[in-house]
Amino acid sequence: MSATILICDDDADIRLALSLLLSSKGYQILEAQSPKEVMINANRHQPDLILLDMNFSRDTTSGMEGLELVSQLQPMGIPVILITAWGSIELAVKGLQQGAIDFIEKPWHKEKLLKSIEQQLAMRQLSDENTGLRQLLTPDSPLPWVAESASMRQIEQLLLQVAPTDANILILGENGSGKSLLAKRIHQLSSRCNAPLIEVNMAAIPVNLFESELFGHQKGAFTDAKESRVGRFQLANDGSLFLDEIGTMPLELQPKLLRVLETGQFEVLGSSQTQVSRARIISATNAKLSELVSEGRFRQDLLYRLNTFVITLPPLRERQQDIILLAQSFVTSYCQKYHKGTLSLSGDAQSLLLSHAWPGNVRELQHVIERAVLLCTSEVINAPQILIDQQGGVVPVAQYNDNGSLSISDSEVALINKALLAANGQVAAAAELLGISRNSLYRRLEKHGISHES
Ligand SMILES: Nc1ncnc2c1ncn2[C@@H]1O[C@H](COP(=O)(O)OP(=O)(O)OP(=O)(O)O)[C@@H](O)[C@H]1O
Ligand SMILES: [Mg+2]
Known about the structure:
Elements: E1 4-8, H1 12-24, E2 28-32, H2 35-45, E3 49-53, H3 64-73, E4 80-85, H4 89-98, E5 102-106, H5 110-136, H6 150-162, E6 169-172, H7 179-188, E7 197-201, H8 210-215, E8 216-217, E9 229-230, H9 232-235, E10 240-244, H10 254-263, E11 265-267, E12 274-276, E13 280-285, H11 289-294, H12 300-306, E14 309-312, H13 320-337, E15 344-345, H14 347-355, H15 361-375, E16 380-381, H16 408-422, H17 427-434, H18 438-448
Parallel strand pairs: 1-2, 1-3, 3-4, 4-5, 6-13, 6-14, 7-10, 10-13, 15-16
Antiparallel strand pairs: 8-9, 11-12
Helix pairs in contact: 2-3, 3-4, 10-12, 13-15, 16-17, 17-18
This protein binds adenosine-5'-triphosphate and magnesium ion.
Magnesium ion is lined by residues 179-180, 244.
């Protein structure tokens, strides 16, 4: 469906020009010629984007009407691009501070205007997807959280006490032990559950973008700052901010984070105004932070700010009781995903699951079960379909061959057929199971004369 753009200007010629340009690009157009009409249209039609003139009565140039409208529109979450008179940059900056997302000077460059619109619509789609994800996590759709073992029950008890407070929580645990999921659960159990949970992977932020990412920047704050950007602290203001992989944070950046955690204060890059953050901080790491502190790689004072409460997730091998429950829960969800009806785990399969040490923890178990569900051709998952790599990784399906022939060619045909069967005949999915590219599978299908859906 094409996006709807509301054009707001008192000048009929400008509305016409914009409307012709944008409808020729396939956008649906709505028009408003007064501030009142802007609000009515925005409320009634929920456009995807608003192009807003700063001045509505011809004789004023103060831009006050535009600024007021921007703040009235802000809570609706519709991106607003301002149309400003040439040279009124100061006004445009005020508009950006009130929540507008970009501005275009009159007379506009067509290409620049179209590009800005495209970008903002793409961003909105992304944030809608995020909202969709967040909705998946609302209390109505509980997370698939398994916590029956004694150690996990203790964690559950602690969670019920500390999640609803605003206290900062540090989650420790090995890779794949459920830290990210636990962060979501803390947010879900908190009084902030209806506000966003904003995640930042500290390992993924380039050092030079750190401040802009966390605190935001104004357009023009640095050479590449072509658009203004809202920082994660602001986005998480009424919600929670999840700082994942906190142990990877470079030492030189740690003071910047420390300051906002200590005082709540930060500045958007390019602005001298100090802002106050109310975000609740949840952080996680698989690193031994205390060791990093003693090696001088992590600041002790920063650790104290993060670890008001510490929750250490035990590795999966230390929660035997959860293994089968988790496996069953994954079987159910993958059966749904791959339209496999109802499958159960045989006694042998369960014993095998219980005997493994799970160095990759819950994530490893999840992958093993996904493959087992795909490989299973009866109603019961048996031990041969549980492909566990004793080295910790997942066994390539190519090692899975229960046909008695020792001929390589026969084995290949058997394997390919098995994978196609498991993937309901879909070549792409079968190729993934086999760990080869789609093209390479097609070549093999042709070589062996195996029929398939194209
Ligand atoms: N207790 C649990 N109940 C149900 N599913 C779980 C549980 N713990 C983890 N999972 C699932 O296991 C997978 C790995 O968990 P998650 O991503 O939270 O681990 P992690 O500790 O954050 O890993 P990493 O160290 O790689 O960031 C996810 O798909 C998650 O949904
Ligand atoms: Mg994680």
